[in-house]
Task: structure prediction
Amino acid sequence: MTDTNVKDPARSKEQITTDPSKPAQRMGAGSMTLTLTPWLIGAVLLAILPFVFTSNSALTIMNQMWITVIFALAYNMLLGQGGMLSFGHAVYAGVGGFACMHIMNASDFFASFPLPVLPIFGGLFGMGLALIVGSFSTRSAGTVFAMISLGVGELIAASSVIVVAFFGGEEGISGDRTYAMPFFGNEFLQQIDVYYLISFWVIVSAALMYLWSRTPVGRMANAVRDNPERAEFLGYSARWVRFYSFVASGFFAGIAGGLFAINYEILTEENLNTASSGIILLVTFLGGVGFFFGPIIGAIVFTLVQTVLSLETDLWAFYAGTLFVATVMFFPGGLAGLMMMHVPAFKLGKAGYLVRPYIRTLIPAAIGTLGLCALVEMTFHVRHAATGDTQMTLFWIPFDSHAILPWVIAAAIALIGLGIARATTPALRDAWNEANTAGDRS
Amino acid sequence: MELILVNLIDGLVTGLLLFMLSAGLTLIFSMMGVLNFAHASFYMLGAYFAYQISIALGFWMGLLIAPLIVGIMGAGVERYGLRRVHQYGHVPELIFTFGLALLIEELVQFIWGKNQMPYSVPDVLNFTAFAIAGNSIPAYKIFMIFISIAIFIGLLYILTRTRVGMIIQAALSYPRTVEALGHNVPLIFMGVFGVGTALAGVAGVIAGPVLGTFPGMAFVLGSIVFVTIVIGGLGSLWGALVASLLIGWITTFAKSYNIAMSDILNGIGIPSPADLDTSAFRDLWTVTSPQIADILPYILMVMILIFRPQGLFGKRQS
Result:
């Protein structure tokens, strides 16, 4: 779909994943019309979700999800809107969270304001760190910026075991959110109270980040991402534009960290390390960096996949990694990009053309993939289960993993499923072209 | 004095090992302009393959075959992965190699599990080469030094003295011109990528028995390798060599000499605070050099980036 880029390698050098000449792939916030509707729907959904999913575990998952949403959106201010790839962004969220934790433990000061204000302090600390690091790291984008972010991230993560006074060493630091000044009589004892606090902050920070992307600075960030030289000729300093984006991103990452501190009441080295930074990159890219709402989708899908899959299999990280590499290779626009690809078909009123080919290709493909997963799981079981343990359960069917029959069945399912998908792909491609062509071809 | 000599040798081993990784990484970077995040993962694969081969055929066959397999895999990654992602730009390439690093780590855990593999030094080399004032130097360390230096000299010879090396060098700077002269530049790129990853594989084979063969080994060394080539200057082979040795020696010396921060601060005339246990800076005062040895490279990198952004040997960026 981005074949046009191949012909002009010079132009595609600095830009991420999408072709700006195609409206459906345009990066940045421009693709979402400035109406209140999506925001109102979002707010209403946030408000009623706890009534739909009432269990405590659902609340825990949703809290985790919304915090990831803020963090991923903040990350996308850099990656999607500014073209800066950071391998150490967890540090800003982490430092914001640690700062909030220290404020929680400073009882007199903490008792002087209500809890919902606390994330602002997290944001300020994240921003402060971003001010310092950004002063030398935003000199250039691309590879050099990525390397600096990695080095600084590692540096701070590694010093967390040394600087015990601030980071609490190996065991981290913990606090108690209920010591804050009561907020209209609420002391945030219950998970549901925290849920609404986080929801409030999700809406506020998402709206602020969206509005930021509409300001001249936010628009210039897009310009600098696509063509820094031209932006310089227009009189803007590419470096300062990057710096502003970086600082703003640090602020919102810090807010996410503060919410993390409120929700979990403990922060450790794990909140700072490269693995966390890698996960947020994965989340953002999976959701799609080309659209403002991409990271939101990514955070929701990833948190669900993480919680659901990790209950089912030990190999969830392997599947997530495979999915990620496949996304980078085949769908660089991410989930949001995939969704927005269908907009032209809907506009032409031809989306219906796609339904049946999709069913014919995607369902066999899904079944074939499940067959592949079954093979992977069985291999894993044979290699790593305790000796003598040959019983395993897959898709609610118990069987003997050392017998030949299950292997044959799984391989057959995989082959047949993927075979059908492969055979029906040309039909899907035809339907796709048909659905995206105006008028009748007949 | 004797201790200094021992540390010099230890640092040299670490430095040369780092250099084997950073040399390949630098070559790949100056060629394609992309940092191969998964480079250290190929190093890990080298160790695991060599372990698997050494069970059946012994250590030496492992040293011979494992880098070959790693090199072929690397070439395959370039041909079928990177070349595809290349059209999207540099940042997606970087993200791709990052994802690959994650995937390889998961793959290794999938095949070999999470525990350390019993991959050990071969019996032939398992003796003390010589001793310096009671500190014995194992023969394997000497072997590692010789292998690394031999590879470095071989690399230098091929790059500067042979026709293939000339074409590679030309392709690094002017790929289009070289292509116009009738050389298959994508093939050259694939070859260099393969050789670079094979070098990482060799490093893995010889480092596996000493540093341990476990799923985290790529991560432990990986970020240090990036730091190395940033310090040395992106794309500079000599810079990579100097930075590798520098980091090898700095970390080794910091680990073996227990220098306390309080001594340094007292030495330059700042007295220790009376309330050391409650002071906010207590960690600064109690820190010792072995504690911070592992983060010294990062501090060095930040310093270099602030004062000399192009790295020690890097060319000034336009």
